[in-house]
Amino acid sequence: MIPGPIELEPRVTAALAQKTRSHVDPSFIEDHGDALRRLREVAGASACFPFIVPGSGTLAMELAIANLVEPGTRVLVVHTGWFGDRMAEIVRRHGGAPTQLRAPIGEAPTPDELARALEKEPAAVVTITHVDTSTGVRADLEGLARAAKRAGALVVVDAVCSLAAERLEQDAWGLDVVLAGSQKALGAPPGLAVLTASEAALAARRARAHAPASLYADWAEWMPIMTAYLEKKPSYFATPATGLVSALLESLRMVTAEGRELRAARHARLARGLRAGLAALGLHFIPRDETLSANTLSAVSYPQGIDPSLLGAVKERGVVLAGGLHPEIKARYFRIGHMGAVSEGDVVAVTSAIGQALRALGHPCDPGAGLSALAQALG
Ligand SMILES: *Cc1c(COP(=O)(O)O)cnc(C)c1O
């Protein structure tokens, strides 16, 4: 139960076992087009243009910035954790001028704070990490995007740890770019960068005086290819990751069959239940309160007297968790991923394993109390 790469549904694993198909095989073209259409559906992005490109989530960030940022472009990065620093660095690499709007660790800047920052120093692009996987903080994406749009900025959303699990409405909320990687809430193996771009974002790319310095990251190179897939025609720019596209399609079929609203509600319920169980064990979280807490992962502080050896003790009980990631607090907390194929049984198993491991390490707690609080919260 780590926050990516996540465990795959058996159907997704089975899709990976197919023979490699040619990238111009009609059945592959059909599948790639289907995956693009479903990606759009999952992001609520029927007015947007979809991309699926071989690479990780970081490439998806780069695919957004390389096209929207030119030397001197002002970018405001809404910082809720370590992935904001990464975004700022990518902006810098492409010659842009990033400013970070920060909040204390475990909190997020508010839409009012964003509006004031943009008034003081306008920006052409605002980036928002929907869920920062280093802190477990979920930003108020809808409110922040509204403030950014009102100031005339393009909105880029890092949804690597939220797309297909948290509520996200690209068209309705005016998000210009939604980007993600395949291995988190999308439920596929690592290796694909995905992105959906609004007409305004595509127009900003067309209006550039110079093409992006990276050929591979240039939307203009990929758009004819994605268009060909959508129109069921063969095409080539760079070899698609054929096996990964098959696996992603299988996962997207499951996401769209479940329905994105029900899927978001399932994640919310399990996250609430898990955190109620852990709170009953006496644990505290990095996000300041439940409204700032992601439904895809939980960032949990080690209690007094307990150190990262807890993760080994939990693993002995059959559950794999992740350590800290935010450099300033790395050794003080751990992370539990609960996205994609996660079930009630999984959150019960992790609550039970943590309770028993804490007690074995001498921390006073009642594992049974954790489980009953969890059961009660699940209703
Ligand atoms: C994981 C993650 C990334 C980076 O994705 P990679 O696939 O590891 O390159 C970026 N942003 C967020 C919010 C993430 O969770």
- Helix vs. strand class: alpha/beta
Overall number of strands: 12
Task: Tell me what portion of residues adopts beta-strand conformation.
Answer: 5-15%
Number of helical elements: 14
**Alpha carbon gap, first and last residue:** 23 Å
| CA-atom Rg in angstroms | 21 Å
List each distinct ligand once: pyridoxal-5'-phosphate
- Average predicted confidence as pLDDT: 97
Reported for the largest beta sheet, the result is:
7 strands, mixed
Helix content: 40-55%
Describe the structure.
- The chain has 379 residues and is α/β, with parallel strands linked by helices.
- Helix content is 44%, strand content 14%.
- It has helices spanning 10-16, 26-42, 57-68, 82-93, 111-120, 141-150, 170-173, 199-206, 219-230, 242-258, 260-280, 309-316, 344-360, 367-378; strands at 49-54, 74-78, 97-101, 125-129, 131-132, 137-138, 154-158, 177-181, 192-197, 297-301, 322-323, 333-337.
- It is globular and about 65 Å long.
- The relative contact order is 0.16.
List keywords for this structure.
379 residues; alpha/beta; 14% strand; globular; binds pyridoxal-5'-phosphate
Describe the secondary-structure layout.
Blueprint: H1 10-16, H2 26-42, E1 49-54, H3 57-68, E2 74-78, H4 82-93, E3 97-101, H5 111-120, E4 125-129, E5 131-132, E6 137-138, H6 141-150, E7 154-158, H7 170-173, E8 177-181, E9 192-197, H8 199-206, H9 219-230, H10 242-258, H11 260-280, E10 297-301, H12 309-316, E11 322-323, E12 333-337, H13 344-360, H14 367-378
Parallel strand pairs: 2-3, 2-4, 4-7, 7-8
Antiparallel strand pairs: 1-9, 5-6, 8-9, 10-12, 11-12
Helix pairs in contact: 1-10, 2-9, 2-10, 5-6, 11-13, 11-14, 12-13, 13-14
Bound molecules: pyridoxal-5'-phosphate.
Pyridoxal-5'-phosphate is lined by residues 4, 56-58, 83, 129, 132-133, 158, 160-161, 181.
